[in-house]
Amino acid sequence: MCPPLEEIKGLTANELLKKYGQYDSMPIDIKKILLDIKAVLVEDDLSFLENASHVQENIKKYGELCGLVLATKEDLNIFYKKYPIDLTNDLEVKSVRNRTRFTLAHELAHCVLHAEHLEKGYLEFRFENKKINKDFRKRNEYENLEYSANIYAGQLLVPEHKLKEVLNKLIMPSLKSLSELFAVSSNVMRARLDYLGLEYVVDV
């Protein structure tokens, strides 16, 4: 198993945040964690993969290819989607930033939770996952792995202790304000709040 995977496999989200000095940060610097564990980050349009037949099948089923992890005996390589972006458009800049942050957190989650798969040379792809069933009884193995990685990514980007700390200071916590504070999309924030059973105001 490559050294970065050995370093982080099996850690809880809080253990990982503490180990790499992000436990009290907000928003979490996910790139710094990945660089600190010596992961190789590659931003690419991913077109070199999208033409493969098995990838195309998954794109049709689960949505756009956003990233992947490739582990060798020595290196941990994380590829993430390079999006065309209008730097004068603040909404677009934030949207791309949030998508990238979640993709990186999701791939890091696979490294922690599913190191054994990666050790065997298994390529871990991240698609948009629009059609993953919330009912575990109806999910296949791939969907179970993706679902657990999504939950872990949410725990990394929106740690429960920081979220509750913020909620205690706000009279009326809105989805939009919380999303901006943690630098995540409203969908990610909504999923995290619902998962924890916390109340909020929908304003987006």
UniProtKB/TrEMBL annotation:
Entry superkingdom: Bacteria
Listed InterPro entries: IrrE_HExxH, Rad_response_metalloprotease
Ranges of residues in domain IrrE N-terminal-like: 98-193
UniProt-recorded name of the protein: IrrE N-terminal-like domain-containing protein
Native species: Thomasclavelia cocleata
